[in-house]
Amino acid sequence: MAHGSRLVDLVHERIEDFLAERTSILREISPDLEPLDAFSRRFLSGGKRFRALFCYWGWEAVGGRGFDPFAEEGGRDKFPVVSAASALELFHAAALLHDDIIDNSDTRRGAPSGHRLFEQLHAEAGWAGSSPEFGRASAILLGDLLLGWSDELFDEGLAAVPDRDAARTARAEFMRMRTEVTAGQYLDILAERAWRSQAESEQRLRAERVIVYKSAKYSVEAPLVIGGAIAGASTAQFDSLRAFGLPLGIAYQLRDDLLGVFGDPEVTGKPSGDDLREGKRTMLIAIARERLAPGQRRLLDELLGDPELAPEQVRMLQQTIRECGAVDEVEALITSNVATATAALEAAPISRDARTELGSLARAVTRRTS
Q1: Is 69 exposed, middle or buried (CB count within 10 Å of its CB: 0-12, 13-18, 19+)?
Q2: Closest by CA position to 11, among listed 43, 38, 51
Q3: Where are the beta strands (DSSP E) in 62-114?
Q4: Which residue of 45, 226, 234, 239 is most buried, as measured by CB atoms within 10 A?
């Protein structure tokens, strides 16, 4: 990805500049708000920036400008796509903060999750009340703050789009993404809790719907389309970006499902088998349940979602899932979806540079180890 590292640096700078403006408001209100400043910077300082990259290359795919982020000194943040890409990263950070609360996750990228940081702050200060309750409430508010800021940053970028129809289309796609990912998150927590009342034949379909709306559209398709919208994409270009983005997003999440069960904690920053302890009803689990004998299926159902799973129990479940062929089937689905995405990319009416870079991104998001 020739421009990837430069764009990531530029997005980081745009986020830093934006946070400096917004957190100055917090400092004016009260020094007690310093943790909101510090933790927001912490959760926005890293990550792979995949959504930002897809947003930029959706823009470049349509415009074909051969844009160099560093071509104009002092004017880099005027490019609407950089602000839009940065806004997507703020939105993602907000979603992760809320997701970790929902999943009761202790870590994020190898460090304490947001609610655990606030919990620790409360405990060390010796304040009244429950540290866990303070941690959860504070992390919800920080997530809400970042969610609002993502809107502000996105609108700052759109203000510089000369084509107002393009700006309105980009805003509509951003709002649709927010609705879809929230709906997908609800379907995810519903699947973890209502699966016993659902027909066995529906569980794979439900897991696939969660993948599409919680992750695939939000992680790949929506950023691509938002970038394309800013550049004034035609109907044919929108259709091509969606035809590439959706199957690639599905493959991206299927890889994530495998990492959630089999990933190396030294690489993923999450405990081994974390999705098993959280009780994630992923496509991997749906496929495993279809393949397992009744006794093995009952054992999986009994252990899945137990936060106190011992390491040997995690290893036993991993072996069971692998030996029944579920992992091989998920790998085949990843390969199939990448092939579908690649075929759509090859036929897309987009710039040559974008086609090359999107192909590289497709490999990066589906072959990753974290």
Answers
A1: buried
A2: 51
A3: 107-108, 111-112
A4: 226
Q: CA of 144: how far to CAs of 56, 121, 135, 182, in Å?
A: 25, 19, 14, 13
User: How many other C-beta atoms are found inside a 10 Å radius of the C-beta of residue 172?
Assistant: 12
Of the candidates 75, 57, 74, the one whose C-alpha atom is nearest the C-alpha of residue 66 is: 57
| Paired residues of 106 in beta bridges | none
pLDDT, one tens digit for every residue, the chain (370 residues): 445 678 899 999 999 999 999 999 999 999 999 999 999 999 998 788 999 999 999 999 998 765 555 454 444 435 899 999 999 999 999 999 999 999 989 988 878 999 999 999 999 999 999 999 999 999 999 999 999 999 999 999 999 999 999 999 999 999 999 999 999 999 999 998 898 888 888 999 999 999 999 999 999 999 999 999 999 999 999 999 999 999 999 999 999 999 999 999 888 888 889 999 999 999 999 999 999 999 999 999 999 999 999 999 999 999 999 999 999 999 999 999 999 999 999 999 999 999 999 999 999 999 988 8
Quick one: 288 exposed, middle or buried, by C-beta within 10 A (0-12, 13-18, 19+)?
buried
Asked whether the beta carbons of 358 and 5 are under 8 A apart, the reply is no
- Residue 298, SS3? helix
DSSP string for 15-62: HHHHHHHHHHHHHHH-GGGHHHHHHHHHHTS-S--HHHHHHHHHHHHH
The one-letter amino acid code at 133 reads E
Cβ(297)–Cβ(336) below 8 Å: no
Selection from 318, 357, 366, 316 nearest residue 339 by Cα:
366
